[in-house]
Amino acid sequence: MVEGYVDHYNNVRLHSAIGYVTPTDKLEGRAEQIQTARDRKLEEARAKRKQRNQQKQNEKLIDNKTMLQCS
Q1: Where is this region: Disordered (predicted)?
Q2: What's the pTM?
């Protein structure tokens, strides 16, 4: 039982004090690579969200212009 807890603690559980990586990842030097991948994914998500929001805004403007022209 203790062995399972130690394995989970060291290999699965993310630790806030070491940048939300596992102790094993930190000790084996993968922390920077993990952080870089996270940052890249966050930036991609921001860009997609920005594009989606701009597209929605443009659609609203087109709808409003159409409504004004039909009135």
Answers
A1: 31-71
A2: 0.71
CA–CA separation, 37 and 45 (whole Å):
12
Distance CA 48, CA 58 (A): 15
SS3 (DSSP) at 34: helix
Q: What is the pLDDT of residues 27-65, one digit of tens each?
A: 999 999 999 999 999 999 999 999 999 998 888 777 766
Residue 62 burial by CB count (10 A; 0-12/13-18/19+): exposed, middle or buried?
Answer: exposed
* 25, 12 Cβ separation under 8 angstroms: no
The DSSP letter of residue 29 is: T
Residues 6+ apart with CB under 8 A from 34: 21, 25
CA distance 30 to 37: 11
Q: Any idea which residue has 């701009």 for tokens? A: 54
